[in-house]
Fold:
Amino acid sequence: MYVLGIETSCDETGVAIYHSQRGLIKDILYSQIAMHNDYGGVVPELASRDHVRKLVPLIRQCIQESQLSSTEINGIAYTAGPGLMGALLVGAVTARSLAWTWQIPAIAVHHMEGHLLAPMLEANPPTMPFVALLISGGHTLLILVTGVGNYQLLGESLDDAAGEAFDKTAKMLGLGYPGGPKLSNLAEQGFSQLKFPRPMTDRPGLDFSFSGLKTFTMNALNATEKTAEDKANIAAAFQEAVADTLSIKCKRALQQTGLKRLVVAGGVSANQRIRATLTQMIKKENGEIYFPRPEFCTDNGAMIAYAGCQRLLAGQHQDLEIYTHARWSVSELSGC
Ligand code: KG4
Ligand code: ZN
Structure:
């Protein structure tokens, strides 16, 4: 089964084709970063308009470069949420219209389920059950995964998501958008002799809170001369505090569930320091850790094609209605 995957939930137009037996055939990504850069963040209306411009040509290119014809596509998967409503609608309407024209099923995919299943695209995929840490721009989630669609929420951020904290802290340090990779690069030049708090690790539970850490970082920055060296040191201390906090909570989630397998995905999982800290923790626990390749940590069409393919294979699909949800909890998903 060939599945066309469409991702338009935020600032990347992702298109991919996944085959149920042959695996990933083609993955194309167009990033709007340069366009939003002038504004210091994503401008939702500009994002929607750019998806409108780019999506259909990218779908055509993806099918052509896969050396397929549209008649060979067996299903279409599109991100139906959570995300920016206008951006989601572009993908959903395009997917639904093409599916109707080609007389094939369409399936609405949860963006975070796409992230969660992204490590399945790798050569050595994890087996279920596992604990998943999803760290993106809008979400920080710890989930017990027992099957595709069987997700039990163990913990989540009560305020800023991990990526959001990176982006806001980067802004504070005068770095551009998107802040995560820029802050991470700066942190490489710093030395984290400053000890920042590891929020909510001194009390039981698996929830996160990063907004206090952001304020602590601002106060620490204001207490310096704000030289390039100061900023690099602050970035390093911030990054280490996030990495440690995530690691402490993951270890706790594994202990609570009795599992040894950890999957880490979402944009922030591209962060080398976080990858290293979590890998070190898992090694000590004699467990296993799985990440997507860095380009599949951030938004992409491949993860949507993969997730949609699993659901289509299980016989699930949508009717002619257009499904989009700006907010949508993974706990609401059903298994397949
Ligand atoms: O998963 P993603 O591409 O989009 C959402 O679903 O939100 O995640 C984007 C987030 C942004 O906050 C971005 O700054 C962060 O992931 N990010 C990083 C890195 N690469 C992307 N944060 C820290 N270090 C990175 N290397
Ligand atoms: Zn994402």
User: Anything to note?
Assistant: The pocket of zinc ion (ligand 2) is lined by residues 111, 115, 136, 266-267, 299 (CB under 6 Å). DSSP finds ten helices and ten strands in the chain.
